[in-house]
Amino acid sequence: MTNDDLVHRLRSLTVELDVFGAGFAARNGLHATDVRALIALLDRDRAGAVASPGWLAGHLGLNSASTTALIDRLESKGLVDRRRDDSDRRRVALHVTDAAQEMGWTFFGPLIDQVIAVADGFSDDELTTIRTFLDQVTAAVAGVRTR
């Protein structure tokens, strides 16, 4: 197997995940950017960090007006709420609602279970290598994207 083959396999996986995510978006009346925003907000929360509208704009590469429209759309659907940041009451913090998390788990849960089942077939050392590879590829993509 060549390294080109790895690139093609990653591209194939990316397309499959994109199609899967598009199904979630269509089923729930969301835009692709809405789904990316929800994922970004969940990841930010999982990391223990506060997500502000400015952070979300920078993360998604959106201008202020587009970010406001996005947040308004998600808030009107009951998927995101805005609260004052506990550590700085002047800042607004964005939070994915429990309803949005349930909606996502209902759709993505079976896929997550399948991925976990696949991972269970690998040793701890193999999983460490896979994680390292995926983290470095993700960083490479982000680096090229932000040039």
From TrEMBL:
<feature type="domain" description="HTH marR-type">
    <location>
        <begin position="3"/>
        <end position="139"/>
    </location>
</feature>
<dbReference type="InterPro" id="IPR036388">
    <property type="entry name" value="WH-like_DNA-bd_sf"/>
</dbReference>
<dbReference type="GO" id="GO:0006950">
    <property type="term" value="P:response to stress"/>
</dbReference>
<dbReference type="InterPro" id="IPR036390">
    <property type="entry name" value="WH_DNA-bd_sf"/>
</dbReference>
<dbReference type="Pfam" id="PF01047">
    <property type="entry name" value="MarR"/>
</dbReference>
<keyword id="KW-0614">Plasmid</keyword>
<dbReference type="InterPro" id="IPR000835">
    <property type="entry name" value="HTH_MarR-typ"/>
</dbReference>
<dbReference type="InterPro" id="IPR039422">
    <property type="entry name" value="MarR/SlyA-like"/>
</dbReference>
<protein>
    <submittedName>
        <fullName>Transcriptional regulator</fullName>
    </submittedName>
</protein>
<dbReference type="GO" id="GO:0003700">
    <property type="term" value="F:DNA-binding transcription factor activity"/>
</dbReference>
